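Entries read sequence, tokenised fold; example below:

***
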Amino acid sequence: MNAVQVKGLGLKLGGRQVLTDLSLSVASGEFCVVIGPNGSGKTTLLRLLAALLVPESGKIELFGQPLGRYSRRQLARVLALVPQQAPTDFPFSVRETVLMGRSPHLGLMAFERATDLALAAEAMAFTDVSHLADRRLDQLSGGERQRVIIARAICQQPRLILLDEPTAALDPAHQIKILDLLERLRQERGVTVIMVSHDLNLAALYGDRLLLLCEGRADRVGTPVEVLERARLERVYGCTMVVEEDRRNGFLRVSPVPARYRKD
């Protein structure tokens, strides 16, 4: 079964066509990375999948059921959304923040049970933030906060995690830690991951499937080798690119070429 099935998706915002006739299938347990230039519709797509926006045309199914049939609580039990940056003015401890992931599974005005506390502890251990449990979120570094927000998402026990540029403000070491964590989550728990990223090299390293958006349309969907073609990237991004294969390690590397190095 596909985790996500999108057919003919279209949306206009502020008089501008943001997405046009977009179709995409993401298999359960797959790591899909959405790439494309600024303004190509990447974040809008995530917001549509999370039911934060309603499409004007087309349809979205999650795990074989139309998105519109999910209540907010039902949706929160199958889907978690991780924003680009964790909030910095959040006056809660790490433990309290992670426990918020249990909200969709609790009744109105219900308190956390022993099983909820155990799941929060497990999520903190999985993301290596257990030692920070009593610290406030606004006292942590950017990488630590992002791991806490992912721990909260894990605590929801979702089948699908959506992430909007989760590594944008992090250094390379922390980027790899976050994405290794998501890859482990996918492999060990079968969670489907859909991530928006501007980093073509991270997309090449982690994506089973890439969706390249250009002006709101799917320019190409496929494996990194199929999508990250030099001529295609140059056309979509409007700059000179170098695409090389690291034969020793078996992945692609993509680099834009500054004007000073171009030999036209």
